[in-house]
């Protein structure tokens, strides 16, 4: 696919628009702390992003937006179905300690107990690629929307991503592409997520209670989170927000009855921007803190059931014949919703011990380039591709550790040429692939009829921030 401005740009023009782009990014908060000094706001740089919006087929963008509400409701259904969660994760939790520890909290609070807080809030980001099986030659109308995953915890870049649409509008105007600039769609991801947090805060029904952001020890991406704080305050300036690390929660949070209290504040919502990777639980104390939070009356974003519903294993189990259908009652147009959801699925295969898993191994070893091997991990950089699939599966052999993974069809995404703007790096035209992230928010009441709402916005970003230009 080509962006519509003719590329490459002449060097003088490029230098000019890039200089303007960088200053705009600074002045509009598309910034990050630096890798060298990740806990200091004394040194910052613009966040890595592309100069121009990437072309996204309108049809596929609309499909992704339209199916978001279905996915919100599907996950709502999954979180209410402990049999489904338990049977889906049965094999993985035997070999994956991290998932097991999450599951144990889930079991204690939701399966064997009654949670103190029936309200759940989830801020999701469903990620997609556009499958272009015929490479660069693939026309837009042959491309297919393929879901990579749904993130149910710490979905990031709504804050920075929302500003990137405006930056791209500005850049296009500087390239005399004002018609195109005017046609860029507005990105409402940030306001949607803030609205989700504020609505949940209201349902907690305590004006003095705060929203606690559980943050990383190393906060390079702090400004993405600050945007969300500011947006919350735009809606309601009286809501107290606070940023606390796991160590703060461990040392100073306590429960009074079932209320969660820290530093004199009752907590209405614990919004997790951390706690999704094993190395973030350095000792048993982090697990104890997570359990205390889960048991408390604070609304969790996400609850541990949504966290588990976002695992790769649950994603794979949902792709089985009949699995999405199991949740049909949650949709107003049951069969049609199931079809919309299924249409976004890539092939997903179990690696559980047994004949089905054996067949998956055989398939993967025959043509490893056609697949991605995925462990139960979040945060990028954990997946296994190509030859490494062969060596990993051979290493594991007949061991039960195989069930830590699932296998997925590898998407051949459309390639787009664009300029990457990265700190300390020369800006050159390079080939890239895009991943589209659609945000969704859902508030639900456990064990009562669902009262959900959703809001779809968009941001993209594993590597760099982008905005879609619909073609
Ligand atoms: P994580 O939760 O760590 O982000 P993902 O499933 O999103 O895990 O995978 C991380 C990255 O790997 C994706 O952003 C994408 O670039 C690549 N990837 C994942 N699944 C596929 C796939 N099926 N085909 C092609 N690339 C993939
Ligand atoms: Mg993820
Ligand atoms: Mg991902």
From TrEMBL:
Q: What is the name of the protein in this document?
A: Glutathione synthetase
The UniProt record lists the keyword GTP-binding: no
The pathway where this protein functions is: Sulfur metabolism; glutathione biosynthesis; glutathione from L-cysteine and L-glutamate: step 2/2
Q: Which residues form the Glutathione synthase substrate-binding domain?
A: 210-309
Question: Per the similarity annotation, which family is this?
Answer: Belongs to the eukaryotic GSH synthase family.
Q: Catalysed reaction per UniProt?
A: gamma-L-glutamyl-L-cysteine + glycine + ATP = glutathione + ADP + phosphate + H(+)
Q: How is the cofactor bound?
A: Binds 1 Mg(2+) ion per subunit.
Q: Which InterPro entries match?
A: Glutathione_synthase (IPR005615), Glutathione_synthase_a-hlx (IPR014042), Glutathione_synthase_C_euk (IPR014709), Glutathione_synthase_N_euk (IPR014049), GSH-S_sub-bd_sf (IPR037013), GSH_synth_subst-bd (IPR004887), PreATP-grasp_dom_sf (IPR016185)
Keyword terms of this UniProt record: ATP-binding, Glutathione biosynthesis, Ligase, Magnesium, Metal-binding, Nucleotide-binding
Question: What EC number(s) does this enzyme carry?
Answer: 6.3.2.3
Q: Which cofactor does it need?
A: Mg(2+)
């Amino acid at each position: 696919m080509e962006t519509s401005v003719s590329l490459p740009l002449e060097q003088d023009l490029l230098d000019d628009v890039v200089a303007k782009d960088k200053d705009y990014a600074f002045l509009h908060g598309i910034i990050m702390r630096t890798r060298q000094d990740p806990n200091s706001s004394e040194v910052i740089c613009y966040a890595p992003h592309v100069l121009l919006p990437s072309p996204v087929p309108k049809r596929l963008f609309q499909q992704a937006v339209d199916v978001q509400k279905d996915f919100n409701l599907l996950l709502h259904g999954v979180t209410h179905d402990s049999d489904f969660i338990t049977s889906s994760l049965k094999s993985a939790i035997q070999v994956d300690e991290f998932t097991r520890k999450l599951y144990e909290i889930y079991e204690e609070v939701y399966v064997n107990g009654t949670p103190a807080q029936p309200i759940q809030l989830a801020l999701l980001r469903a990620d997609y690629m556009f499958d272009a099986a015929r490479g660069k030659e693939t026309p837009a109308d042959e491309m297919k929307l393929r879901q990579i995953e749904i993130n149910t915890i710490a979905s990031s870049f709504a804050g920075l991503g929302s500003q990137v649409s405006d930056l791209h509008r500005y850049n296009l105007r500087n390239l005399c592409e004002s018609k195109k600039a005017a046609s860029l769609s507005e990105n409402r991801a940030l306001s949607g997520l803030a609205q989700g947090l504020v609505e949940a805060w209201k349902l907690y029904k305590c004006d003095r209670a705060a929203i606690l952001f559980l943050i990383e020890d190393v906060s390079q991406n702090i400004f993405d989170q600050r945007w969300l704080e500011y947006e919350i305050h735009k809606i309601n300036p009286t809501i107290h927000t606070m940023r606390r690390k796991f160590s703060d929660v461990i040392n100073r949070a306590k429960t009074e009855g079932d209320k969660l209290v820290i530093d004199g504040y009752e907590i209405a919502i614990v919004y997790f921007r951390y706690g999704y990777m094993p190395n973030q639980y350095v000792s048993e104390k982090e697990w104890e803190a997570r359990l205390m939070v889960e048991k408390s009356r604070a609304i969790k974003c996400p609850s541990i059931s949504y966290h588990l519903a976002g695992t790769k294993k649950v994603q794979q189990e949902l792709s089985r014949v009949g699995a999405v259908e199991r949740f049909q009652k949650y949709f107003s147009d049951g069969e049609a919703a199931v079809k919309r959801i299924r249409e976004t699925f890539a092939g997903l295969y179990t690696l559980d011990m047994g004949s089905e898993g054996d067949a998956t191994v055989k398939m993967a070893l025959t043509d490893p380039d056609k697949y991605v091997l995925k462990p139960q991990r979040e945060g990028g950089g954990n997946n296994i591709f190509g030859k490494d699939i062969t060596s990993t599966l051979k290493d594991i052999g007949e061991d039960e550790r195989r069930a830590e993974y699932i296998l997925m069809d590898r998407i051949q995404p459309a390639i787009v040429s664009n300029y990457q703007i990265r700190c300390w790096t020369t800006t050159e035209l390079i080939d890239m692939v895009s991943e589209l992230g659609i945000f969704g928010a859902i508030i639900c009441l456990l064990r009562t009829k669902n009262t959900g709402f959703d809001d779809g916005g968009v941001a993209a970003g594993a590597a760099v921030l982008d905005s879609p230009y619909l073609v």
